[in-house]
Amino acid sequence: MKDKRKVLVTGGAGFIGSHLTERLIELGHEVFVIDNLWTGRLSNLEKVQNSGRFHLIVDTILNESVMNELIFKVDHIYHLAAAVGVKNIMDHPVETLDINVKGTETVLRLANRFKKKVLIASTSEIYGKHVEHTLSEDDNRVMGTVKKRRWAYACSKTLDEFLALAYYDEKKLPVVIARLFNTVGPRQTGQYGMVLPNFVQSALLEKPITVYGDGTQTRSFTHVKDVVWALTNLMEEPRAEGDVFNVGNDHEITINDLAEKVKEMTGSESPIEHIPYEKAYGPGFEDMERRCPNIEKIRNLIGFNPTYDIDAIIQSVIDYFKE
Ligand code: UDP
After folding, report:
1. Rounded to two decimals, what is the model's pTM?
2. Which residues participate in catalysis according to the annotation?
């Protein structure tokens, strides 16, 4: 990337946001992070805080005057600020909808005021309950009932995508949408329910590894460094504008096999226990049986090819927690 830019990362103190911020600084850009530290942490930014090209604003993206000034100043916006973690989303339904709907609306409206390019971080959750095949960008979405709280998150992120595409079509705002599949790696905390940090921490502490449901559900995990590569390259690719891309790894694993692998790779004696979903998340929860991306589209456009396989991914998380 030859051009040095001013870049805004919303949610830049979060797990993915902080890795993205580091990479953007490495590439020579000047980076502004806005984060309200709901789930983001200042410690995530230790590596960049003394770089002369890093600026932190601790505030909510709902603060219009702050956002107006920031967006006016920068060339590009990576919009990652959102409610994260299934457990968090189940526990805070109002905040989830508020930040995901109003936050993205604010970012897009102000970006349009100054015609600044935006990359929206979306999620594989928006595909819903598909089981039959790997997920392609133009697939239909299969949503559950409004009585199950999880779907509020999926619907709020879907609305963000609709809004971004509407700004592109109607207002000619340059936008790109990245649908992230399960992203993992160093700095992800188990606090908000994510499976891999929880399994690794339990294994290292010789505590039970708790698999929710029967463990036959599958996920496809992508290392955060591969995700960051995809985001920065999508942002710089003009042909990605006005379009949606899966960002993930197409290797699938059952949660039972993940638990076994973590146990083996940590050399842990932890028992693997199965517990019902209601006990883990409370009533009104519905899981996705399967979630695996088709990544042809992003591979063809920017040559995306995940470099971390599942063993390397797990090892990087083990190393992180051992540190
Ligand atoms: N899960 C589990 N034990 C945990 C946390 C999660 O068995 O301690 C399961 C969860 O029910 C889901 C999968 O692991 O089937 C992935 O969960 P995560 O919250 O990491 O991501 P998502 O559900 O958003 O894919």
Report:
1. 0.97
2. 153
